[in-house]
Amino acid sequence: MNAAEKRSESRVTTDQYYSVEFSTKGIEFTYQFKIWNVSSKGMCVLVKEDSDILSHLKVGDVIDMKYYQDDSFRPVEYLKTEIRHITKDDTGRFRDNYLVGLAICA
Q1: Nearest-5° angle of CA 31, CA 106, CA 80?
Q2: Checking phi first, is residue 58 left (phi over 0); if not, alpha (psi -120 to 50) or beta?
Q3: Per-residue pLDDT for 11 more than 50?
Q4: Residue range 47-76: average pLDDT?
Q5: Across all residues in the chain, what is the average pLDDT?
Q6: Read out DSSP for 6-50?
Q7: Domain 3-104: which CATH number of 3.30.1760, 2.60.40, 2.40.10, 3.40.50
Q8: Full-model pTM
Q9: Whether the Cβ atoms of residue 102 and residue 42 lie closer than 8 Å to each other
Q10: Using the 8-state DSSP alphabet, how is residue 103 labeled?
Q11: N or C terminus: fewer CB in 10 A for the chain?
Q12: Kind of pairing, strands 77-89 and 62-69?
């Protein structure tokens, strides 16, 4: 399956969120990432290609994530989130990073 097919699935755009924070099994640290809406159908986080977190993420994982909203007066939200794709950007704007697609579970 190529990257275009992976990203063709329907996803919810959530412009109200600025960043997300989470940890996974096997990692003692909590990671926080800025949320990028690089397409009209989804959001993702950028992960550097040498980050330890990449070896602990896989497509289909559902992780409890803490979402920070773009308005600091609004409360954070804890939402179950699915990893939809992990795509390396070799030549584009985010060269040498992985785009990790996120979808909030309904």
Answers
A1: 20
A2: beta
A3: no
A4: 93
A5: 84
A6: HTTS-----TTEEEEEE--TT--S-EEEEEEEEETTEEEEEEETT
A7: 2.40.10
A8: 0.81
A9: yes
A10: E
A11: C
A12: antiparallel
